[in-house]
Amino acid sequence: MRIASFNINGIKARLPRLKEWLEETRPAVACLQEIKTMDESFPAEEFESIGYQAIWHGQKSFNGVAILADGEKPNEIQRGLGIDGPKDGEGEQARYLEAEVRGVRICNLYLPNGNPHPGPKFDYKLAWMKKLRERMHTIWNEQVPAVVLGDFNVIPEDKDVWSVRAMASDALMQPESRDAYARLLADGWTDAIDTLNPRGRVWTYWDYQAGAWQRDHGFRIDHLLLSPELADRMGAAGVDKEYRGREKASDHAPVWVELRD
């Protein structure tokens, strides 16, 4: 069973590339972030035409998450973590969607970026991570096979970035961000990509600016965290790097984990 995550950076703009990836790699579950569309505009029929059914949590122009399953509709468990955005009266942003597929709890997230740092957006990032940890505690106590995956907007360690100096002032690398991520792992969750690539130097994101892709100036911010029940079943994990180099690609590459039956 392959479970994948892909920050698509605008589902309408990347739809041909997204369908191409789905058909060529055929994950059982595909979690999308930054779909950047309202609920009524989500192109569900495009995925149904290639055998995928979907649930989604959209927002106009920003954010948005979706879960696609091959041959079945995900059974929705929860949307949102109950935390409002950084502006008063803004309400909750579309950043979290949880479902069950084939007996596995799928928790798809798009964690706040947190820039500029310091400031209210960074405070929101840390508060959101606290809420996420609370939700992960609840899931842990249910003792269900679970994966928490998506764009975490956290570079966990220095080995996960092409240049520590270049990113030193970014919210993605601040000690508070890293500490909050490390606490998730300390609770017993397994970082699939890191476990199979302990030396690092595996990127999931390359900026559109300054020739970052061509120079391989990337970093790792897309993660798959496995509960013990799934960590024991992990057979492989990786990054579909080549899709970042295709025409009109997202600035992220898909990440995935293979689970044994």
Query: Poorly predicted ranges (pLDDT <50, ≥5 residues)?
Result: none
Radius of gyration: 17 Å
Helix content: 10-25%
Strand order of the largest sheet: 3-4-2-1-14-13
Secondary-structure-based class equals alpha+beta
Overall form? globular
Strand content: 25-35%
Mean pLDDT: 97
Report on the biggest sheet.
6 strands, mixed
Report on the architecture of this protein.
- This protein is of the alpha+beta class and 261 residues long.
- Helix content is 25%, strand content 26%.
- It is built from 7 helices and 14 strands.
- The protein has helices at 15-25, 44-48, 120-142, 164-167, 175-186, 192-196, 228-231, and strands at 2-7, 29-33, 52-57, 65-70, 75-79, 96-101, 104-110, 146-151, 190-191, 205-206, 218-219, 222-226, 234-239, 255-259.
- The strands form 3 sheets. Strands 3-4-2-1-14-13 form a 6-stranded mixed β-sheet.
- Helix 3 (120-142) runs parallel beside helix 5.
- The termini are close together.
Task: Write a short abstract of this structure.
This protein is an alpha+beta fold. Helix content is 25%, strand content 26%.
Structural descriptors:
alpha+beta; six-stranded mixed β-sheet; 261 residues
List the helices and strands and how they pair.
Layout: E1 2-7, H1 15-25, E2 29-33, H2 44-48, E3 52-57, E4 65-70, E5 75-79, E6 96-101, E7 104-110, H3 120-142, E8 146-151, H4 164-167, H5 175-186, E9 190-191, H6 192-196, E10 205-206, E11 218-219, E12 222-226, H7 228-231, E13 234-239, E14 255-259
Parallel strand pairs: 1-2, 7-8
Antiparallel strand pairs: 1-14, 2-4, 3-4, 5-6, 6-7, 8-12, 9-12, 10-11, 13-14
Helix pairs in contact: 3-5
